[in-house]
From TrEMBL:
Domain of life: Bacteria
Biased composition (Low complexity): 14-43
Coiled coil spans: none
Naturally occurring in which organism (per UniProt): Bifidobacterium miconis
Name of the protein in question: DUF805 domain-containing protein
Region span, Disordered: 1-43
Transmembrane listed as a keyword: yes
A Pfam cross-reference name: DUF805
InterPro entries xref list: DUF805 (IPR008523)
C-alpha cells in the first residue's frame, strides 16, 4: 500500500503530492482529454497561453465582400508585384487619372501588351472592313492608320499615368517620362538641321555634289536618335523597384480604405 492510499491528501508529504500530480497529468495526456487540448489527443486548438484560435485568424484575414484571392491582393494605391494580365489591365483603367503612387513592372508590361493587342485588333477590323467594301489599297492603308491613331488616343492617358507610376516605383520623378519623346523630337530636328547646314555648305562651295552625302548623314542622325529614344523608353520601364519610391505614395484615409474594401 502506497502513501497516497494510507493518508488523505492533506496529510501527505510534498514529494508524494508532486508525484501524484505528475502521474495525473500523464494519464490525462495519454487518454486524450479534449478539454486539455494536448497534442497527443489530436486537438489542434489547445488551451495553453500560446494556442491560436483558427476562427479568429480566419476572420481577421478576410475583408467585407472579398474573394478568396483578396488575402494577397494589395490596395489600389499600392504597387502590385506579381500581378496577372487581367488584373493589370483593369487596374490601368481604374487608375487613369492617378499620377501619384507606384506601379510594378508587371503592371506596366502587361498593360503594354494589352495596348499592342488592341491596336492589332483595330487594324485588323479596319482592314477587313475595307476589304469587304472593295476599296483601293490607298484607302485601306489610311483606314489602318486611322484605326491605330484612334487606339493610341484612347490609351494615351491611361498609359501616361501608368508610366509615371512605374518611374515612381524606381524612385524616379515622373518627368523622366518625357525623355523618349524629347529624343524623338530631337531626331527630326537634327535631320532638318543637318540638311540645312549641309545645303549651306554646298551653296558656299558652289556645287551640288555633296547633297547626297548630306542627306545620308541627316538620315543616319535621325535614325540614331530614334533608336536612342526607343532604348530610353525601354530602359526606363525595366529598371528594378526601389523601396525609396514609397515617398510618392499617398495612402488614403482610414475611412476611404474601409469604403474601398467594402466594395
Amino acid at each position: 500500500m502506497t502513501e497516497s492510499n494510507m493518508f488523505p491528501p492533506e496529510k501527505r508529504s510534498p514529494a508524494s503530492l508532486s508525484a501524484s500530480s505528475t502521474s495525473s497529468e500523464s494519464s490525462t495526456a495519454l487518454s486524450g482529454d479534449p478539454v486539455s487540448g494536448d497534442s497527443v489527443s489530436g486537438d489542434p486548438y489547445g488551451t495553453g497561453p500560446y494556442a491560436a484560435n483558427p476562427y479568429v485568424t480566419y476572420a481577421q484575414s478576410q475583408r467585407v465582400g472579398a474573394t478568396a484571392s483578396d488575402a494577397r491582393r494589395p490596395a489600389l494605391w499600392e504597387p502590385w508585384y506579381g500581378i496577372g494580365f487581367r488584373a493589370a489591365t483593369v487596374r490601368m483603367f481604374r487608375k487613369t487619372f492617378v499620377f501619384h503612387g507606384r506601379a510594378s513592372r508587371g503592371e506596366y508590361w502587361w498593360a503594354w501588351l494589352f495596348g499592342m493587342l488592341v491596336q492589332a485588333v483595330c487594324i485588323a477590323i479596319a482592314s477587313v472592313a475595307m476589304l469587304w467594301a472593295g476599296v483601293g489599297t490607298a484607302v485601306w492603308d489610311d483606314a489602318g492608320t486611322v484605326a491605330q491613331l484612334v487606339c493610341w488616343l484612347l490609351l494615351f492617358l491611361p498609359d501616361l499615368s501608368l508610366s509615371v507610376r512605374r518611374l515612381h516605383d524606381e524612385n524616379l520623378r515622373g518627368w523622366w517620362v518625357i525623355l523618349p519623346t524629347a529624343l524623338q523630337l530631337g531626331a527630326f530636328a537634327a535631320f532638318f538641321a543637318v540638311l540645312f547646314v549641309g545645303g549651306m555648305i554646298d551653296g558656299y562651295a558652289g556645287g551640288d555634289d555633296g547633297s547626297l552625302q548630306v542627306t545620308v548623314v541627316a538620315t543616319l542622325t535621325m535614325l540614331g536618335m530614334l533608336l536612342l529614344a526607343l532604348l530610353a523608353s525601354v530602359l526606363l520601364m525595366i529598371l528594378p523597384s526601389d523601396s525609396r519610391g514609397a515617398r510618392f505614395d499617398r495612402p488614403p484615409a482610414v475611412s476611404d480604405t474601409a469604403r474601398e474594401e467594402a466594395r
